[in-house]
Amino acid sequence: MAESTTTALAGARELADNAPKTAKTRHYLPVRAGGKATTRQAAWLLAAVVVLSLLAAASLAIGARGLSLATVWQALTLFDPANGDHAVVHARIPRTVLGILVGGALGLAGAAMQGVARNPLADPGIMGVNAGAALAVVTGIYVFGVTSLGGYIWFAFIGAGAAAVVVYLIASMGRDGATPVKLALSGAALSAGLYSLMSVILVSSQDTLDRFRFWQVGGIAGRDWAVVLPGLPFLAVGALIILGTGRILNSLALGDDIARGLGQRVGLTRGVTALGIVLLCGSATALAGPIGFVGLVIPHVVRSLTGPDYRWILPFSLVLAPALLLGADIIGRVVLLPGEVPAGIMTALVGAPVFVWLIRRGKGAGL
Q: SS3 for the chain, per residue?
């Protein structure tokens, strides 16, 4: 046993050393970045932060009532309660902050889920986590009469956690255990079943449907600080957990046997990472509804910039995912004036062509 482990570790190190020689290996194995590569990645991360900052400013300025950036700056620094433009800016702040928080949570959760499952198609929507949270929220409305968005969060946590456990247990059945393909298939099957149960409840209760349909499409409009603040502690804890798993996910990318040989307790690390994913997905889904595609497409975009090192993938996902969500929300505000298209719909319309383009160019890096 010791000899086979040593041989496996030696083989992994040899592959990692030779990774720059072939494009295929470079996509599949995390390698230690050199000084120039680290500087380049840091520069890209700084550029991503700048883009997010510009989109946040645009989110405060653009809408049914367009404002200049100078007016936005005055409203933030020299607020005048009697100025209607200043009041509009302050009314948009919770929406913008929620977009940053939810986008960051979905981006981190999607990247971590792809790393844990070693499946490039893993994301909170495909793996059944969003469906579990949504069904739990519907149950809370129908059975317990929950009406506030703040009250949805506990049901969303329970549903997201239960769905994650069920998917893993189903995928673990059989000789090979929870393989990436089995995880994806189990998540897709469970999502279909949970959404069917949710539909049964909704068609049997008009009152539940009326309360749920605004939340169901996914969006960050109409939320205030009373909705945003209850989710902050859970989002913060989940983000800290996931951001600390970069080295762990790099080890898991080499396979469970190699990860154990490198000293990782695979079951424990997967459980801790899953806890962070559930906290992020449950909070984001409770606050903004089931927004899809962000956690799927952003990690692929990030890998085209950083390579497969999760120590860079995670912080990049934390920044670029809210940029996508804010951009989609801004477009949704102006595309059908005086109405709005919810951000959950716009993320799919904006993200789907980008994802197809990445795949066709061969930039959707494998795991």
A: CHHHHHHHHHHHHHHHHHHHHCHHHHHHCCCCCCHHHHHHHHHHHHHHHHHHHHHHHHHHHCCCCCCCHHHHHHHHHCCCCCCHHHHHHHHHHHHHHHHHHHHHHHHHHHHHHHHHHCCCCCCCCCCCHHHHHHHHHHHHHHHHCCCCHHHHHHHHHHHHHHHHHHHHHHHHCCCCCCCHHHHHHHHHHHHHHHHHHHHHHHHHCHHHHHHHHHHHCCCCCCCCHHHHHHHHHHHHHHHHHHHCCHHHHHHHCCCHHHHHHCCCCHHHHHHHHHHHHHHHHHHHHHHHCCCCCHHHHHHHHHHHHHCCCHHHHHHHHHHHHHHHHHHHHHHHHHCCCCCCCCHHHHHHHHHHHHHHHHHHCCCCCCC
CB-CB contact of 238 with 297 (8 Å):
no
**Could you give the percent of the chain with pLDDT greater than 70?**
82
CA-nearest of 215, 192, 198 to 290 is: 215
pLDDT tens per residue across span 24-33: 334 444 545 5
Domain 100-308+360-367 has CATH 3.40.50.1980: no
Q: What's residue 47's pLDDT?
A: 94
- Residue 105 tokens, joined: 């949570």
Q: Before 290, cis peptide (omega within 30)? A: no
pTM: 0.81
